[in-house]
Amino acid sequence: MPSRNIKEIQNSCNKGATIWNLCNIMTTTPKMLHVAILKMLVLDGESVYSLTSHPILLLIARIILVNSRHKLTSLQTLPWWTLRCVNIHQQLLEERSPELFTLAQACIKQVTEAEALFTGGESWHLAVQFHLESAYTFLFYYEYKKAKHCFNMAKDITKLQINLTGALGKRTRFQEKYVAQLILDVQRTDGFFLPHSELSPAATPLESLTINYDLNDDTLLNEIKLADADQYQVPDLCAEELAVILGICIDFQKNNPIHKLTEEELLAFTSCLLSQPKFWAIQTSALLLRTKLEKGSTRRMERAMKQTQALADQFENTNTSVSERMKIFYCCQVPPHWAIQRQLASLLFELGCTSSALQIFEELEMWEDAVICYERAGQHGKAEEILRRELEKKETPGLYCLLGDVLKDHQYYDKAWELSRHRSARAQRSKGLLHLRNREFRECVQCFERSVQINPMQIGVWFSLGCAYIALEGYEGAAKAFQRCVTLEPDNAEAWNNLSTAYIRLKQKIKAFRTLQEALKCNYEHWQIWENYLLTSTDIGEFSEAIKAYHRLMDLKEKYKDTQVLAILVRAVVNGLADRAGEVSSGLKGKLQELLGRVTSRVTNDGEIWRLYAQLYGNGENDISEDIEKSLQYLTKAHKCEIQSSDWEKDVSSFKEVVKGAIEIAHVAIKCSKNKSNNQEALQILSSARLNLRGLSSKAKQLFIDVTSNEVHSEIADEVTAMDNMIAELQELSNQLRNQC
Asked: N or C: more exposed end of the chain, with fewer CB within 10 A?
């Protein structure tokens, strides 16, 4: 195709040419111009899907709604239609486009400020539709809080009460008793009727909707059979109300972890939506979600396969008119045809039907997925062959990037970079990942920086960039990268955790503490995050949070222990140190005693922990008899742990430490015996301490004797003398008690 024609089109777009002139240009060489149009729809270095049908229509829409919008300011709904154009354009791109997001935000703001658009009872359905469309836009660009706000606004307008609840029912054919089942309870606020319901789209005939396959399982029922179905009867819902339920469902999915319970909750939503089949867009969206949830279940996988096939084939069905499919279409974010076919191919591949999956991927020209299939099947040569074959037809940056992925060769990424005229974020991203795998961190950072400069909405690249900076000990760069990562995806626990690591290395421990709190909100089960939180809390003086973190770690790891942290906590409580808020830590004594009680019930062989436990009770130095008795008990257990360890007898310093502990026990035993009203109990305590010391004294005289002088070595003589003196004192006290009996 002559370059003059392409330049003419580009100039037309840039100058806001008339549609008729543009159409005249386009009719010259349609096949080659299709490629040129796709190039002109590239944004932020992200290319458009190559098999997009009639991209000229999107280009015309952009010229009218984006390039020429300053000439159409009198149209109230112009920014709303621009938002719809933005959402369609974004669905065609490989990655999120910051330029489109900026434009979308501006459109949402303009429509929100146009108060006249939603005034009056007859415009409620418009308000619901706009809030839903805004919510999906925010959700796609990781603005989860704004999305939730918009979904809630739409729900409030419809006055729907949507709650997950339990109801007695049967799930299997052979179930005899009704048991609690999870269902979605949808009710309208008492006495509320939607005004001007005639403005809401009319329902599509059932025969024009995608077929909803039954389960046909020999055990599971097709749907839950409720004991009292009338109590939870869903009212007859209009298009906007069904769209609100779907929106709440999608928001719930995005804001909850992948878990079996989450899947059951989402299936409750889909069951409710599919119980009222009325609109093609809602039916398609609900069925798609259900197939994703059911594909992992052995009893539901067959239906998931058949249903996905039906969803992919429905676009060839001419029974449903375009006008019926467009009803409530923009409020549901129905994926493109090829995205559903891709889901079908992925499901086939998971089931082992590799050749069928490859056939679909190749028909869709989704070469990346095709390459992954070949790679997983071990056919590396076939992956290279198919890419070189396509490159012979037409050279594109994307194909060169895939060839680089297969051969792990930088030259193909460089070729893609040059071919894109330094606008391919993918080329630099892939090259950076290869450097990262090869631990070439400096080169990796350079590539990632170029990639995010072209498209700053790449969460994975920001994360990898942060990891590379940490490897290079560039903690400021790491903090910046992970900060961008959590800004885009606030529920990324790993990014929050890594951000805290960067802050710790930068000596910004308060920031590290706060980021770890955010990390734990995202992932409450990650023991490494809890450990980081424990250490950081202890370090900055958040002793109460440290105790809480230690408890949680013991929930996650049964025999978890960190003696250093426990020592700091005991010292803070015993000495009455101030925490970060300036409060005296002595008030945490009860909580710390509870923690140490739990620790010692699981870790029974650590003498140091037992000594810390005794220290918390005063080491026998206070006047409370109960505390003295507990101190004696814990010091004795610590001593037993120490003498059970190997080689302590052969090392003089270790032996002296054991002797020191035994003498300490004897002192506490004397104090404890004085508080006993029963002389027999007091005698038992003193005898135990005396026997312990006598055994150690005899061992010292055997192991550390000078054969020439037949005397104890000088380095341990003082300890032996101290033991003998203490034995004599204990003997004397015992004699006094016997005389009193």
From this structure: C
Quote the CA–CA distance of 376 and 380 in Å, as a whole number: 9
Residue pair 532/516 in contact (Cβ under 8 Å)? The answer is yes
Return the closest-CA partner of residue 66 out of 107, 34, 96.
107
- Alpha carbon 708 to its chain's center: 72
Which of 249, 276, 277, 254 shows the shortest CA–CA distance to 265? 249
Low-confidence ranges of the chain (pLDDT < 50): 1-18, 20-21, 25
C-alpha distances in Å from residue 111, one per residue of 84, 130, 571: 12, 9, 60
Name the nearest CA neighbour of 498 among 488, 389, 477: 477
d(CA 714, CA 329): 93
Residue type, 540: I
The Cα–Cα gap between 528 and 533 comes to 9
Q: Report the SS3 class of residue 319.
A: coil
Maximum distance among all Cα pairs of the chain, rounded to whole angstroms = 123
3-state SS assignment for residue 41: coil
Within 8 A by CB and 6+ apart from 584, the residues are: 576, 577, 578
Return the pLDDT at 8.
Answer: 46
pLDDT at 741: 59
Task: State residue 9's pLDDT score.
Answer: 45
Q: What pairs with residue 677 in β-bridges?
A: none
Expressed in angstroms, the distance from the first to the final Cα of the chain is: 117
Secondary structure (3-state) at 162: strand
Supply 422's token pair: 């330094």
**Which of the 8 DSSP states describes residue 336?**
P
Neighbours of 313 (CB within 10 A): 14
In this structure, are residues 312 and 340 in contact, taking their beta carbons and an 8 Å threshold?
yes
Contact 22, 3 (CB under 8 A): no
Cβ 550 vs Cβ 556: under 8 Å: no
Bridge-based pairing state of the strands 179-188 and 160-172: antiparallel
Show Cβ contacts of residue 364 under 8 Å, excluding neighbours closer than 6 positions.
51, 338, 341, 342, 345
Note whether 523 and 559 are within 8 A (CB). no
DSSP state of 180: E
Distance CA 472, CA 286 (A): 47
pLDDT in tens, 689-725: 888 888 888 888 877 777 677 777 777 888 888 888 8
- Residue 552 has a pLDDT of 93
pLDDT digits (tens, 9 = 90+) for 97-153: 999 999 999 999 999 988 777 776 678 889 999 999 999 999 999 888 999 999 999
User: DSSP per residue over 205-269, as a string?
Assistant: PGGGSPP------SSEEEEEEETTGGGGPPP---HHHHHHHHHHHHHHHHTS-S-HHHHHHHHHH
